[in-house]
Amino acid sequence: PEVLLERAIIILSERGFLNGWYNQIPIASGLLDEVSDKRAAVYWVHMKDDCLELVELKWASDTPLYAIFEILRYGLTYLFCYMNKVEFDFQDLPAMNVSRIKLTTLAPKKYYSYCDLKLLFSAINLAINSLYMEKSDGLLSSRFTCSAFPIDFALPFKTGAEVMALRDLPADNPTVGILINAMNNQISAWEN
Description:
The protein is an alpha/beta fold. It contains 5 helices and 6 strands; from the N terminus they run αβββαβαβααβ.
């Protein structure tokens, strides 16, 4: 389901229905050597204005805590690259010229239902923002979020062929609308 949803959102972005979304962005692949973290990639990156959002998508795999650790790892790798952008010759990349970073885990509401990590979430949010502000000399703030799709959201497809059909569906098609609504109306993971 994660791969199907990932591809569906990118198709909608390519068609102009959801602007600024990109997928499978390598974040640590090859950073240490040619063997380590070969598939270390963020599911989605969303660029909007002066904000870069890194999104760790989950559907039914792993745990919320695992998703949190994954997005934090990617966020810290980003910060390392930001701090060394001149040395890495990254200074002209759009992703290195933002003033805000948002680190997001995104999953169905029920994915988060067996645990309540509100206290951990709050502590991480404060700590990661302080770290970003300190290491960027106040030029880069961050926000950490655990988000859920709207409660009634269910995947409107089951196969890759159905996802590929999104390339030809009109903007007013119900499946297109369901996906756009799901991306634009996320809620807090532990919202009552």
